[in-house]
Every structure is written in C-alpha cells, then in structure tokens.
Amino acid sequence: MASTRYRDSAFLTGHHRPNRMEVDAPDLFIEGELPADLAGVFYRNGAEPLYPPTDEDYHWFDGDGMVYAFFIEDGRVSLRNRWVRTDKLLLEMKEGRRLFGVHGNPMTTDPLAEGTRYNTANTNIVLHGGKLLALMEGAPPVELDPRTLDTLGEETYGGVVTTTFSAHPTVDHSTGELINIGSIARRGDAAPELRYDIIDFDGRPIATESVPVPHQSMLHTFFVTEHYVVFPVTPLDISLPRAMSGGPLVGWDPDRPTKLGLMPRRGTAADVRWFEAEPRHMMHQANVWESDGRIVADVAAAEGTALFPDIDGTRRTHRETRQSLRRWTIDPTATTDVVREEILNDRDIQFPRPDDRLMTRPSRYAFANSNLHSVDGRADGMDSVVRVDTRTGFEDLYHFGDSAAAGELIFAPKVGGTDELDGYAITLVHQAGAAETELVVFDAKDLTGGPLARVKVPFAIPSGFHCNYYSVDNPLYRQAMG
Ligand SMILES: [Fe+2]
C-alpha cells in the first residue's frame, strides 16, 4: 500500500506543502488593475512530488517538475498548471507510488525503475527554438506544449544532448542563440568534463565542445558575455566514492577555491584559462557582460551553503550563509589569475535577475527576492523583493510581511517597451497558512510604492524555483505561439 502522507520535512510542509492537483482557472479575480500594455505569459517551474518520497532525507531539489502558466492579456489572467510527465513520473504514476531514491540515489531506488532515467524537469522553464522546455541540470530538457503544457517528450537536439543539460542556459537576445552546458562525470580516475553547446535561434545545435574541469562540482549556472563564456566550478563537490563510504554525495568543501574557466564563446577546451576566487557558494547571477575588456559578473554568492552539508557532514545555517549581491571582475589580460570581488548590496537575496533582453550585454538593475526577517529564507520564505541600481547603490524594496514567501522577481517589459525599466516586475507570493496565492505586479520603477495589481489564485502554490516572462512581442514568444 502506497503511503498517503508526506513526511515531516521543511520542504514538504508550510510554504512548500504539495498540492497534488492540476487546474485550469480561466479568469482569475484581480485586486487593483492590470496595465493594458502587459500582455504575455509568465511561467514558473518547481518541485511538487506527486507521491510521498520514501527516503528520509527528502531534498527540495528532488520533487517532480510542476509548471504554472499565467496567460495575461486585456487586463485578465488565466492559469493552468501541469506536471511534467517525465518517463520517471509516468512510471511512478503507473505503479501508484514513489520508486526513485532522493536525487535518483541508486542505493534507495526500487528495482522496478531500472532503465528509466531520473529526470524531474523541475528547475526552470524557458522558451527557445519554438519550444517550451522544462529543465533540470541532470537530464535532457523535456518539451511541453507552450499553451496546454502537455508533455511532448525529451529534447536531445538530434542526439547531441543525451545526458545532462543546464537549468540555466543563457539566451542571447542579440543573436537568438541558446548557450548551454552539461556536467559529465567520468568513471575511475578520468577527469570530469562539461559539455558546452551552442543552439541557434531555430533550435539547431551549431557547436559542441568538451571541457575538462578541476573537480566534479554542482555546475548550476555559468556566464556568457558577447565574446566569452565562463565556467564557475565552486567548492560544492560531488563525489560518488565519498557517498559510498557514508559521506554526503554533494558536499561543501571549505578548503577548495572557486575556479572560473574563461573561454572565447566560439573557443575550444585548449583556449580555457582558469581564474581563482575565494571559496564561494554561487548558483545564480543577475547578469554578466564585458566592460573595458573585463568580464563583469553580478552574482548572488556566500561563504558556504545551508542547502547541502559540508563534506565532513557539518550543517551550516541559513543565517551563516546568506547570499549577497556581489560583483566579480575578471581581467583576461591580467598576469595573475585573481578574481576581484566587491559587495554591491548585502541583503539576503535568493534569485537575482536582470531585464532578460540584456543578458550578455551591460545592464544597470538587478531584481531579486530578498529576506528581511525570516530565520530561514529557503524554508520559511523570502519575505520581500528588491531592485538594486548597481551604478548608484540605490535600492527599491517592498516587504510583504514576515510570514510571506515571495518567489523569483521577474522583469516583464511592457508591449513595445525597449528601455531597461520600461515595464513591470512580477512575482508569486504566499502568506503562511493562507489558502490562496497572489501573482503580484509592480511598476518596475517603483517597488516601494506597492503592487499595481494582485491576481488571486484560489489555492496555495508551493514555493518553487525559476520563472520567466515572455511578452507577446518577444521573438521567442512569437516563434513558439505562432
Ligand atoms: Fe537555479
């Protein structure tokens, strides 16, 4: 008999409690007024396990991908949510119970799952090449219908991507290219590698390259500028031998530096030069670009992480490992391999974002969800949102109240708008214990003044991961929606 109860995990209760349902809500109530020039679709992906996990150490990153799509037009909003029907989830639905161990751990996976890939497709959701792609970093993308969210199957780009993909590929809006990496583990003493891919605007792979990396780390993100790509290899180390001897599979190694591999965008492994920074946990950047020949990366970074244990099993707290907005500068002409770091804003932030149209090119503002008061912003919720002017240091902040959980804050350009702040900022907010969730819309120039509109979702949406907004005049939207 399959379990009918979720275990008492911080990531299965409170703001994270799974819903176990898919809905179509054709016309949501709205408090305030949605601007007429906001028209497009807001997608969000996140982890919602359909079946109670069987392992004791359930992790937030382990649940099944659930995609929410808010279609916004003429001041009205419809909502649809669907699980990504990966082969993993389809097999578990057939059996009516969870089969896979946490993170696909083979030691705790039911033999029935043998031969089926562990793909949760739960981390990001992007439009590219006319397709809606649900992404996780351990498996190929899964294509969904951009309107119905029906699962259409894994996208392998003609057999180029058969193992891993990034949850954070960069779409260069100047060229339409999607730049991607995948982490490749090797058996025995062979050096781990990453696979670097360039996919053109139409979704065709035009370059792929293997690059050896210093050690197997969690390669959650990487940087792309107009001419360069940077591969950050952080101290978040992955080791199967360590796991086999009872240690953590993924662990923070405080004695390792952060290594940053710089390569020309059309370069090869032979062109890579490694730079070095202090040990930093870094999974997300606002934006990265070139300035006076240097690479400038505005990132969310911290000394250590509460998401995973240290390699010796020690657990750090959220408070000890708050991420702040920092600027890393790499000088490709320097004679030393040192990366310069400065703190731009020291608030506790989670997911920094730019105006996506400026990715790879200079930008001025970083949007982020942030935490003023909660003890553990990951479990208890990020209670605020902030926009930082990285030139002046000015911050524009809105606090939703101490019991709020605010998701990633996304810049949504107005239809026809081209300037960096000419539009809106959107996030999902849930108040602890509330039976509803709000899709909150701000004027991007004025968060402090409060929301212009709150779109009422009549149920609690669990905290999730990444969101993207595509305006009706975005070439990626036109390509996908016809
Ligand atoms: Fe991420």
What key attributes describe this structure?
mainly beta, Methylamine Dehydrogenase, Chain H, iron, binds fe (ii) ion, six-stranded antiparallel sheet, 482 residues, 3 helices, globular, oxidoreductase, single chain
Explained architecture:
With 482 residues, the chain is mainly β. It has one domain: Methylamine Dehydrogenase, Chain H (7 Propeller). The protein is built from three helices and 33 strands. It has helices at 87-95, 240-244, 475-481; strands at 24-25, 30-32, 40-47, 65-73, 76-83, 124-128, 131-135, 142-144, 151-154, 170-172, 177-184, 193-199, 205-212, 223-224, 228-233, 236-238, 250-252, 258-264, 273-277, 281-291, 294-302, 324-330, 340-345, 348-349, 365-371, 384-389, 395-399, 404-406, 410-413, 423-431, 437-443, 453-457, 467-471. Strands 2, 28, 29, 30, 31 and 32 form a six-stranded antiparallel sheet that branches. It has a five-stranded antiparallel sheet with strand order 1-5-4-3-33, with no helix packed on it. The protein has a four-stranded antiparallel sheet with strand order 6-7-8-9. A hairpin with a 6-residue loop joins strand 7 and strand 8 (142-144). It is globular, with a radius of gyration of 21 Å. The model has no long low-confidence stretch (mean pLDDT 95). Fe (ii) ion is lined by residues 123, 167-168, 220, 283-284, 465-466. Residues 123, 167-168, 220, 283-284, 465-466 line the site of fe (ii) ion. Keywords: Dioxygenase, Iron, Metal-binding, Oxidoreductase. This is Dioxygenase. Its cofactor is Fe(2+). InterPro entries: Carotenoid_Oase (IPR004294).
